[in-house]
Amino acid sequence: MAQLRQDYDEFVARDTAVLVVGPEDAEEFTEYFTEHDLPFTGLPDPEHSVLKLYGQQIKLFKFGRMPAQVLVDKSGIARFVHYGHSMKDIPENEEMLELIDSLDSD
User: Fold this and answer.
1) What count of other Cβ atoms lies within 10 Å of the Cβ of residue 22?
2) I need a labelling partner for 33 at 20 to 30 A (CA). Which of 1, 17, 23, 60 fits?
């Protein structure tokens, strides 16, 4: 999430909402977001409802949910999906920003 915070203004400048979905309950999630002063929206998903909708995996031997990034356009169509194989397997912000720019040029 530190990576998203770093370039958050770049996403906002592109009229892009950043939504982080996490496995914690609402209380834990709110506490974490408040403690770290995160500027984007967080959605607690302790029952994995959103996880299941997007096919995100849980790997018990790799500390739970694997990271996933989904870029959804304003029509609600998923234009890019990346399922990480480890907690470090996350696309760089630059790649995501380039994808957003390419959608704007369509």
Assistant:
1) 18
2) 60
